[in-house]
Amino acid sequence: MTARTGLLTLPAWVPGFVPEGVRPPCRDADPELFFPVGADPGKAARAVCRRCPLKSACAEWAMQTRQAYGIWGGLDPEQLEKRRRYRALQVAT
């Protein structure tokens, strides 16, 4: 559920790349949910992501673009970076 454009794989929810008939639940949510501040661990955003059919594509895009803020595909930037490093180690071995 991603589309290749040049060097970047875009998440399927980028305008023009959403599969027909799919409406990501984040589109109807308050964007501030996905950028928690303070002690908020982003539970509300993760709940939205759990029911999203594009969750994997979203997390993949965030890893590729090294998003430093926000919840993407149900993962925070630390979790995304750990996955990216783990994947890089797998490829290297």
Gyration radius, to the nearest Å?
Answer: 14 Å
- Identify low-pLDDT runs: 1-8
Order of SSEs: EEHHH
End-to-end separation in angstroms reads 28 Å
Please summarize the sheet with the most strands: 2 strands, antiparallel
Strand order of the largest sheet: 1-2
- Fraction of residues in helix: 25-40%
Multimeric state: single chain
| Shape descriptor | flat
- Rounded average pLDDT: 83
Q: Structural class, judged by helices and strands?
A: mainly alpha
Question: How much β-strand is present in the residues?
Answer: 5-15%
Say how many strands there are.
2
Number of helices: 3
Description:
The longest helix is centred in the C-terminal third of the chain and has 16 residues, at 77-92. The chain has helices spanning 43-50, 55-64, 77-92; strands at residues 2-5, 8-11. It is mainly alpha-helical. The termini are far apart. It has a domain at 42-93. Strand 1 (2-5) and strand 2 (8-11) form a beta hairpin. It has a two-stranded antiparallel sheet. Helix 2 crosses helix 3. It has 3 helices and 2 strands; from the N terminus they run ββααα. The model is unreliable at 1-8 (pLDDT under 50).
